Amino acid sequence: MTDCVFCNIIAGKIPGQFVHQDEQVVVFKDIHPKARVHLLVVPRVHVESLAELTGQHDGLTAHMMRLLSQVARAQGLDNGFRTVINTGPGGGQEVPHLHIHLLGGGPLPGF
Ligand code: 5GP
Ligand code: ZN
């Protein structure tokens, strides 16, 4: 069993509250939500962070970017949403499997 928590969620070994699944990407609820809607957009392939993306991932990267607004709309975030990607220890990344935070549904703190 891999020790990557997100790989284990994707494999169904740890429960996750999925709101979207396709061939390349899953989207599930963050376990400690920081907004009314707080989702994690996660590639099925284990890529550690933005810093490990290569040209091989260009299709995946484009898919994730375009999926964000589709998922946001499906969640009723018609007024907009926030995306956050933490990269590496210097960026505050806690789970070393690339993911995009998708937040919204109420007032968000200033950035
Ligand atoms: P990071 O700091 O790496 O950008 O964010 C990791 C996020 O993953 C955190 O917001 C944290 O709450 C979430 N998280 C950590 N473990 C789990 C888990 O087991 N299940 C879910 N759904 N989210 C998790
Ligand atoms: Zn992983």
When the domains are counted, the total is 1
CATH domain class:
Alpha Beta
Q: What integer is the average pLDDT?
A: 97
Radius of gyration: 14 Å
Any overview of this molecule?
A 5-stranded antiparallel sheet has the order 1-2-3-5-4, with helices on one face. 21% of the residues lie in helices and 22% in strands. The chain is built from 2 helices and 5 strands; from the N terminus they run H-E-E-E-H-E-E. A hairpin with a 3-residue loop joins strand 1 and strand 2 (25-29). The protein has one domain: HIT family, subunit A (2-Layer Sandwich). The longest helix is centred in the middle third of the chain and has 17 residues, at 58-74. The model has no long low-confidence stretch (mean pLDDT 97). By secondary structure, the chain is an alpha+beta fold.
Brief digest:
It is built from 2 helices and 5 strands, in the order H-E-E-E-H-E-E. With 111 residues, the chain is of the alpha+beta class. It has a 5-stranded antiparallel sheet, covered by helices on one side.
